[in-house]
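note to self — DONT lose this again. spent like an hour looking for the file last time. sequence + predicted structure for the chain T wanted, 195 res
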Amino acid sequence: MQLHSQKRSWSKKRIFVVIILIAVGYGIWFNYLDSAKYCYQDNTNNRKCADIGGILGNNRIYQPWNIIGHCLPGLFLLLMTPKKWELFVAGVLLSTAVMDSPLWGVMRLAHNLPLWHSVNGNFEDTTNITDWIVFYYNPIGTHKVWKDSWPIEGQPTAALIFWSVVARAVIAILLIIWQETQELKKNKIIIKNHK
């Protein structure tokens, strides 16, 4: 019993702050990296730019590594809170939700990379963040939002992107709350056994 009472207790506030800081911080850093570009002069002395995703193999190669990278905040949380797998999952979910949020578009514009939207069924570049958000995060949109489909032909759609971001954030919050209720139950049992 005393061993448990000597362990450092993780309050709901502390867990929430740590998860938010790590997951959101990583998501922001990844958005910054993901929206970076490499520019060079070609043989005809024209300036050409390529984004990191294109340099690293486009969606088929880049996206799986992108997803694996979001396990890093979760692994960090797992090291800080051993045996609390729900916090690992919450960290991964929050990190990917931040990465897929409109912040990504803001970062692209900050790096002078265009956004896109659809005009008459064709993808066209835009620098208008509102046009892009309406196109990319339409909760009932059945249109494809990337020129290249991944992982399934015709995917992801605007509705899939929107609802997956919402679901990831909600599930992460529920996992954090569930973990806190488990801690409260453990503490009640310890107090009860101490009497």
